[in-house]
Design brief:
This protein has eight helices and eleven strands. The protein has about 220 residues and is α+β, with helices and mostly antiparallel strands. It has an eight-stranded antiparallel sheet with strand order 1-2-3-5-4-6-7-8. The two termini are about 35 Å apart.
């Protein structure tokens, strides 16, 4: 199968796994992601103010969506691959604030939703090598090591509250294709995707999930 066809089919699977949001819900979701990027837990009221929406409707939406994580005070601490609580190896730095991503792919699509350039750091789970790159409006840059790839898993069903365990735990950066092959051999159903193709996947899923809310919202180069 040609790479372009493979990426298109993977994009379709990913888009199908994410809840379809109406235009108002897209504004709420985008407001929540961008509020989390400030680096602190976010209340439903703060999301409502940022989105220009009624708080009860915002609370109802967040309670229905998968992958919304709250702290003991009911504030949101994680959503759509972005967390203000540290865990794992994937870090994404936005405007000097260091946040946590749930998986390697999150670091490639989140900058587009946030409208900001990001510095990304992670670690290869096979070799232990540090991985770094910068993600801007036109794609990933200064990828180190140069041969870095991602492991991926095509979702079989819609994402749910267990998305971190069922999907994110299978999506990592690897220092080389060779390193990735060792890991993939032990994890059936996974495969490699280049950093550039992973970025393009993110562009497609961002447009499908948040297109109306993103219209006219630029991203820092």
């Amino acid at each position: 199968m040609a790479d372009t066809e493979k990426i298109q089919r993977l994009a379709e699977r990913l888009i199908a796994a994410v809840p379809r949001l109406g235009q108002d819900e897209q504004r709420v979701g985008l407001a929540l992601i961008r509020s989390l990027a400030a680096g602190a837990p976010v209340s439903d009221r703060e999301v409502a103010v940022a989105a220009g929406a009624a708080e009860p409707g915002v609370r109802d939406a967040l309670d229905r969506w998968p992958g919304v994580f709250r702290d003991d005070h009911g504030r949101v601490v994680g959503f759509m691959g972005l967390s203000v609580v540290e865990f794992g190896e994937h870090r994404i730095e936005i405007d000097g604030r260091r946040l946590t991503a749930w998986c390697a792919w999150d670091t490639l699509f989140l900058p587009g939703l946030l409208g900001r350039r990001a510095r990304v750091s992670s670690r290869c789970p096979v070799t232990g090598r540090a991985i770094s790159l910068t993600v801007s409006a036109d794609g990933p840059h200064r990828v180190s090591p140069a041969g870095t790839v991602l492991s991926f898993l095509a979702p079989e069903r819609p994402f749910d509250a267990h998305v971190v365990r069922s999907f994110c735990h299978f999506v990592h950066f690897f220092a080389s294709e060779q390193a990735a092959r060792k890991w993939i051999a032990e994890h059936p159903g996974t495969f490699t995707v280049s950093v550039d193709d992973s970025f393009r996947l993110g562009q497609r899923t961002n447009a499908a999930g948040f297109g109306a809310a993103l219209d006219g919202a630029g991203m820092a180069a």
